[in-house]
Amino acid sequence: MQSLLGGLLKNKQMVASMRRVMVMSLWEQVVGQLVAKKSWAEKVTDGVLTIGVTSHAWATELQLLKPQILARYRQLLGRSILKDVAFRVGRRKTAPSESATSTTAILHPRAGESLPHEVVPSSTFDGVSNPEVRELLAPMFARMCAQRTWKREHGWTRCDACTRIYNGPKCPFCRETVE
Q1: Where are the alpha helices (H) located in the chain, listed in sequence order?
Q2: What is the pLDDT of residues 51-89, one digit of tens each?
Q3: CA 161, CA 27: separation in Å to the nearest integer?
Q4: How many CB atoms are closer than 10 A to CB 113?
């Protein structure tokens, strides 16, 4: 399990994705529950966190607090992952009670089909010293393992040429045909 985690953390795309999820899931902790009721993390693109807010007044208020918000993220994550924070007035797309991990899309199961929930041993993340990061990694890692299991059970294969996982007779990435 630890070798699998090590391989995943070496994958730059996976690390970037995990950082985005961490940044977005820490929003309420950064600004507090009152502000989080009127604002929400929407996305992280090229180091810019986009925050949705319910009104222009909240956008203005949060714009004034931007230096403190960035400083709090640096404090929680240990280094600066974010370059900037942008605010957008709009409507919340998900209910405020949903967690960041539950908003992650299930890309492969059919309607009514769910992924198995695997429990990840706590020893898997012993090398991660930050308890908040460890707490965020566990559900993400469990979900990733469940997706990988689901794909194997439903005929997905790993391409020998490019090592990507795909479904079908021909790898869509390198166009190699499975024999």
Answers
A1: 2-10, 12-25, 27-31, 33-38, 56-64, 66-77, 131-153
A2: 999 999 999 999 999 999 999 888 887 666 788 999 999
A3: 40
A4: 10
Tokens standing for 127?
A: 């090398």
Residue 46's pLDDT band, with cuts at 50, 70 and 90, is confident
Tokens in use for 161? 């040429």
Dist CA 33 CA 109 (whole Å):
34
- In this structure, which topology does domain 14-89 adopt according to CATH? GMP Synthetase; Chain A, domain 3 (3.30.300)
Task: Could you list the beta-strand ranges (E) of 46-119.
Answer: 48-53, 84-89
Task: For residue 105, give both structure tokens.
Answer: 């899309």
How many CA atoms lie less than 13 Å away from 96 in the CB half-sphere? 14
Rounded Cα gap, residues 143 and 65, in angstroms: 34
Among 55, 54, 56, 82, residue whose Cα is nearest residue 68: 82
